[in-house]
Amino acid sequence: xxxxxxxxxxxxxxxxxxxxxxxxxxxxxxxxxxxxxxxxxxxxxxxxxxxxxxxxxxxxxxxxxxxxxxxxxxxxxxxxxxxxxxxxxxxxxxxxxxxxxxxxxxxxxxxxxxxxxxxxxxxxxxxxxxxxxxxxxx
Length: 138
Prior knowledge:
Elements (H helix, E strand, L loop, with lengths): L1 H20 L5 E6 L4 E4 L8 H12 L1 H7 L1 E3 L2 E8 L4 E6 L4 E7 L3 E7 L5 H17 L3
Antiparallel strand pairs: 1-2, 1-7, 3-4, 4-5, 5-6, 6-7
Helix pairs in contact: 2-3
């Protein structure tokens, strides 16, 4: 079981590396549905427990999340997309930095994009990785 866990962790680190290599995201982290940080581009950056719980709630109640917004890594974002199934896209300011959050069967992928990145491209990187992991049953 420990060996299987190491393989999964290696795969998650590889996924983070692939998303960062796109240069459309500033930061990426992958969490289990229990809130455990599995892989990250910046080890010193992780979600607070209440932020993680609010993200999960955002998938259960997307309309409420669109109204209240979402907090990620201590910053508040206006939610522009919350489909209630697998994606949340938040933006902050102009030019818009943002966050993209993808829910898979067993994971939550969180990505940030800076003012100098196009939010939609960063969002596409995060969502494509989510689609890939979902097809693998993860």
